[in-house]
Amino acid sequence: MLRDTLKEEIEHLSESQLRRVADYITLVKLQTQHTSQNEPLWQCATSAQRVQNFRAWVEQLPKTGLSLPDEAFNRESIY
């Protein structure tokens, strides 16, 4: 039942939403694979899988729109 409902929902998603879903699915697969192998993800995943894992992680971060002030990026303000 859940599978059919998900298939229907997927039909209505845009391309960018489908990419996010694909990234999430990859993340779930990697996490499942990682826990069954008891190896760190960086050791057992390919570079493409690590990229997808990182992108999926970034996508779930909150999007506040806040940034550091320009002075924070100025090298002189560090010293």
Uncertain ranges:
none
Alpha plus pi helix count: 4
Distance between the termini: 61 Å
Looking at the structure, what is the overall shape? Answer: flat
**Largest beta-sheet characterization:** none
Give the DSSP E fraction (strand runs of 2 or more residues).
under 5%
Describe this structure in words.
The longest helix has 23 residues, at 15-37. The chain has a domain at 15-59. The protein is flat. It has helices at residues 2-11, 15-37, 41-44, 47-59. The protein is mostly helical and 79 residues long.
Entry keywords:
single chain, 79 residues, 4 helices, mainly alpha, flat
What topology does this entry show?
Layout (H helix, E strand, L loop, with lengths): L1 H10 L3 H23 L3 H4 L2 H13 L20
Helix pairs in contact: 2-4
Structure described in brief:
This protein is mainly α and about 80 residues long. The protein has helices at about 1-10, 15-35, 40-45, 45-60.
